[in-house]
């Protein structure tokens, strides 16, 4: 079953895509299979972030076959945070999910986030650190330990009581999307923390939800380069807040 562009989406799925020529078709197939099975109008926004491979070509091919798919193009590489922000602000669904293109968290886990959003929160985020989460394939040990260190420092600097800010599987209500993402300033991998910080500042209710997670060997994250930048970004979040940029 395929919905037309005149149907108002219940769910929007944003996929930031950089060097994803080997995963995008399979990811699209899994996401559409899930959404069609649910029987609600949907849209998928693929944000191609200046990718030098065939990611854009494949995304356009997908869009020609499904009118519910929209391709957004960054002419140059702007970063995951920029791409997610762009996709989230252009989404029109009542609930808007952003997910990693490799589906490290299976799309079926969206059921858990939607349940939380319909119960008692405005922002539902996948977590690998809660009881009930299932990490089927772990990251290399040095990434796991650096992630724990980052979370500890993140808590000390931002006072966010969140066990896992970096799982790339988060869903927002439409109102939260518009209020939070228009204020986002970071383009890199710390944008997750910034968005959650903004959401909390604006009074939105955030809930962590245990999910299944499978490490992907195809990650484009540079361990040393991005780790250093992420720690710097935490300080920038507090500085931006001090200067009133999130008000």
Written overview of the protein:
α5 runs parallel beside α8 and α6 (174-181) crosses α7 (191-201). This protein is globular. It has eight helices and nine strands. Strands 3-2-1-4-7-5-8 form a seven-stranded mixed β-sheet, with helices on both faces. It has a two-stranded parallel ribbon with strand order 6-9. β2 (42-49), α2 and β3 (69-74) form a beta-alpha-beta unit. With 247 residues, the protein is an alpha/beta fold. The protein starts with 10 loop residues before the first strand and ends in a 5-residue tail after the last helix. It has helices at residues 24-38, 55-65, 80-90, 110-119, 141-158, 174-181, 191-201, 223-242, and strands at residues 11-17, 42-49, 69-74, 95-99, 123-127, 134-137, 169-173, 206-210, 212-214.
> Strand order, biggest sheet?
3-2-1-4-7-5-8
Please report the distance between the alpha carbons of the first and last residues. 43 Å
Determine the fraction of residues in helical runs and give it as a percent range.
Answer: 40-55%
- The total of beta strands comes to 9
Rg of Cα set = 17 Å
> Which word captures the global form?
globular
List unreliable stretches of 5+ residues.
Answer: none
* Biggest sheet overview: 7 strands, mixed
Give the topology string: H per helix, E per strand.
EHEHEHEHEEHEHHEEH
Number of helices: 8
Structural class: alpha/beta
Percentage beta strand: 15-25%
Q: Mean pLDDT score, rounded?
A: 91
